[in-house]
From TrEMBL:
SUPFAM superfamilies: NagB/RpiA/CoA transferase-like. GO terms for molecular function: glucosamine-6-phosphate deaminase activity; identical protein binding. Belongs to the glucosamine/galactosamine-6-phosphate isomerase family. NagB subfamily. InterPro entries: Glc/Gal-6P_isomerase, Glucosamine6P_isomerase, Glucosamine6P_isomerase_CS, NagB/RpiA_transferase-like. GO terms for cellular component: cytoplasm. The keyword Hydrolase applies. Catalyzes the reversible isomerization-deamination of glucosamine 6-phosphate (GlcN6P) to form fructose 6-phosphate (Fru6P) and ammonium ion. It catalyses: alpha-D-glucosamine 6-phosphate + H2O = beta-D-fructose 6-phosphate + NH4(+). It comes from Brevibacillus gelatini. The lineage of its organism: Bacteria, Bacillati, Bacillota, Bacilli, Bacillales. This is Glucosamine-6-phosphate deaminase.
């Protein structure tokens, strides 16, 4: 995995946006894999800036989001569809029908999961997948214990994830307890992966991801099985890494 340690959140966001923009410039039909949560908000802000200032053209691109809460409609303000609309989609010229987010309010969720996998396949697979990381090492909503063979499915959120995400809701009781999430196998199927982490709270998960054995107990560590992963972390998130002592960028 390629590790890039940057100073702070701002630099992480800019670097990640530049990577995505470059990908779209190189291949206008890029299939983007997108993530939500607090971490990529700055990256989307920078990407919108690049779109406005440099005219990055998304008109032939498409996107697939990692996950969506079960039970929230696309118009619910805390749905990941609404998040994407607010932070990215409404600002750029990505065609609406090519911006995919799983439907967490589908009547038949199993069918929705199969449809979503099929849609990724039909698009030719994901070219570049953006990921955040949970404090417990989750990626997407693949909580500890998720199999390396898992595909898009309904997952149960752990109490720690529910509590971590309660900051976006009026109360912890309002946080959905389930989500539709791409699986580990779906994520590892992307041609390239970029994982972002910022802040001291992520330092232990980042350490286990990069320096621990690959194990389903820390889903992000399974990214070690992928040939093209770039991890962009700020100094606080890198603070528990052996590599951080060396102080810069390294390849492992
Ligand atoms: O970026 P945040 O808000 O710390 O969240 C980290 C991870 O948690 C999730 O938001 C899900 O709980 C993921 O989408 C994200 O990768």
């Amino acid at each position: 995995m390629k590790l890039v340690i940057v100073k702070d959140y701002q630099e992480m966001s800019r670097k990640a946006a530049e990577l995505l923009a470059q990908e779209v410039k190189n291949n206008p039909q890029t299939v983007l894999g997108l993530a939500t949560g607090g971490t990529p908000v700055g990256m989307y802000r920078e990407l919108v800036k690049l779109y406005q200032e440099e005219g990055i053209d998304f008109s032939q691109a498409s996107s697939f989001n990692l996950d969506e809460y079960v039970g929230l409609s696309s118009t619910h303000p805390q749905s990941y569809r609404a998040y994407m609309q607010e932070n990215l989609f409404r600002h750029i010229n990505l065609p609406k029908d090519k911006a995919h987010v799983p439907a967490g309010d589908a009547k038949d969720l199993e069918k929705e999961c199969a449809r979503y996998e099929e849609a990724i396949h039909e698009a030719g697979g994901i070219d570049i997948q953006v990921l955040g990381i949970g404090n417990n090492g989750h990626i997407g909503f693949n909580e500890p214990g998720s199999s390396a063979e898992s595909t898009t499915r309904v997952v149960q959120l752990t109490q720690s994830t529910i509590e971590a995400n309660a900051r976006y809701f009026a109360s912890v009781e309002e946080v959905p307890t389930q989500a539709v999430s791409m699986g580990i196998k779906t994520i590892l199927g992307a041609k390239k992966i970029v994982l972002l982490a910022s802040g001291e709270a992520k330092a232990e998960a980042v350490r286990l991801m990069l320096e621990g054995e690959p194990t389903a107990d820390v889903p992000a560590s399974l990214l070690q099985l992928h040939p093209d992963v770039t991890v962009i972390v700020d100094e606080a998130a890198a603070s528990r890494l052996d590599a951080a002592a060396a102080g810069s960028e390294d390849k492992r």
